[in-house]
Design a protein that fits this description.
Layout: H1 2-7, E1 12-16, E2 19-23, H2 47-53, H3 59-67, H4 80-91, H5 111-114, H6 123-135, H7 141-155, E3 164-165, H8 172-179, H9 215-218, H10 220-233, H11 237-247, E4 252-253, H12 255-258, E5 262-263, H13 278-283, E6 321-326, E7 335-340, E8 347-350, H14 351-358, H15 360-371, H16 373-388, E9 397-398
Antiparallel strand pairs: 1-2, 3-9, 4-5, 6-7, 7-8
Helix pairs in contact: 3-7, 4-7, 11-15, 11-16, 14-15, 15-16
Length: 407
């Protein structure tokens, strides 16, 4: 991993029509010093125009964020997983048809979005970053919140990705003028019963489909809603898998917050997973279609018969994925999640995670990433950059931070 990081510290990737393209010379936003004839493919500005908008050396801000990431009293000792998901949820409200939502505006300051059940637990992230905003008030909260996700990824051993600033913090009047009374980007409830634009963790099985049907048909409500949600953002299936696996290799769920419980990857949920796909890396080795009752467990498959390049059979020993129903103390009578308690450990996956195993198209990309971690790293860089700049067209200027000052 360290060798790869030294080889590609200044790679800038972006996605177009689901394809990842890596530029070794020019970042996707203009830098005001040098590159006098470079044109940003996103903003269309030349570097002289960008310098008028003002690019910032974010060394001090990055260091301030980095200084608050470690806390032995919080979960596994790091706020990085929380800040990565915080940035993800801020950006995941974008709608390509209306060109609304995303990180511009910092609308999670307002009541409706802050109280979206999909955003439960993020008040801690806001409180953590508030003193940093007081120190650097010239940087908008919208920029700071997203930058924190960048710094957190880098601090956990993930790729270095240059940040572009220029997002605004909407006033309530501005937000209401765009989104109506709530002042926040919301959906119609079709893909998330809370009305959120964010993907739902579980919409339940299709009761009209017989138990003998393939599991991708039985769990079609969640699969279809997830694909529709990411398509609304302009994301391909490959970008969807990269983004979900990027976020869900970190951290854990809390029953008192979301109704779910446990870590996705108990080995080290605060680090970029360089040796596999975490819990998903294990679950993908089960042949769910041959299990009569997938809610009761899963039958290990012989990796010599299918996907022979995957890990040896002894990686399968001790794994027993079962569905658990966890009662939610406030929001709902029950939540479904998959647990692996083999070998004395507890790994967890949401139904939305399992969709990546059950859906044939998602599964192809999952297997590819399981075999090619370099491709996963590069695709994550591209998809993260794209996600965090949705809704910011024409606003952003790349940071002037020296490369060796990026954590």
């Amino acid at each position: 991993m360290d060798v790869l990081r030294r080889k590609v510290p200044s790679l800038f990737a972006f996605a177009s029509s689901g394809d990842t393209r890596v530029q070794l010379e020019h970042p996707p936003h203009p830098i005001p010093k040098g590159l006098a004839h470079a044109v940003c493919p996103i903003t269309g500005l030349r570097s002289k125009e960008a310098s008028k908008q003002g690019a910032h050396d974010l060394t001090a801000v990055r260091n301030a964020i980095h200084s608050v990431l470690q806390d032995p009293s919080h979960d596994d000792g790091s706020y990085s997983p929380l800040l990565i998901r915080f940035a993800w949820h801020i950006c995941g409200t974008f709608d390509k048809e209306s060109n609304t939502g995303g990180s511009n505006g910092a609308t999670m300051r307002f009541y409706a979005e802050a109280n979206d059940p999909e955003n439960a637990g993020f008040e801690k992230a806001k409180a953590l970053l508030a003193p940093i905003h007081e120190r650097f008030p010239w940087l908008s909260l919208a920029d700071l919140w997203v930058l924190a996700g960048y710094v957190a990824i880098e601090a956990t051993g993930g790729p270095h990705i240059r940040f572009a600033s220029g997002r605004r913090d909407f006033t309530e009047d501005e937000a209401v003028a765009i989104y109506g009374k709530s002042g926040c980007p919301f959906g119609d409830g079709k893909f998330n019963p809370h009305g959120s634009r964010l993907p739902a963790a579980d919409l339940g099985p299709n009761e009209r489909v017989p138990a003998s049907a393939p599991i991708c048909q039985r769990e079609a409500p969640t699969i279809n809603a997830m694909r529709s949600t990411f398509n609304r953002m302009g994301m391909s299936d490959r970008e969807t898998v990269a983004l979900i696996m990027l976020g869900h290799q970190y951290g854990r769920c809390h029953r008192e917050v979301s109704g779910y419980e446990g870590a996705w990857w108990a080995a080290n949920p605060t680090k970029w997973n360089s040796d596999g796909m975490g819990a998903m890396y294990c679950a993908v080795r089960y042949d769910w279609e041959y299990e009569e009752n997938p809610c009761a467990g899963a039958r290990p498959m012989n990796p010599k018969e299918r996907w022979p390049r995957l890990a040896p059979a002894n990686r399968l020993q001790g794994l027993s994925w079962t569905e658990a129903v966890r009662p939610h103390p406030i929001l709902a009578p029950g939540k479904r999640q998959y647990d692996d308690t083999g070998n004395g450990r507890h790994l967890m996956m949401l139904i939305s995670d399992m969709c990546l195993v059950w859906d044939p198209e998602y599964k192809k990309h999952l297997h590819r990433y399981g075999q090619d971690r370099k491709a996963f790293r590069l695709d994550c860089m591209a998809a993260w950059k794209k996600l965090t700049e949705l809704g910011c067209h024409g606003l952003l200027t790349e940071e002037a931070t020296p490369q060796n000052n990026i954590n």
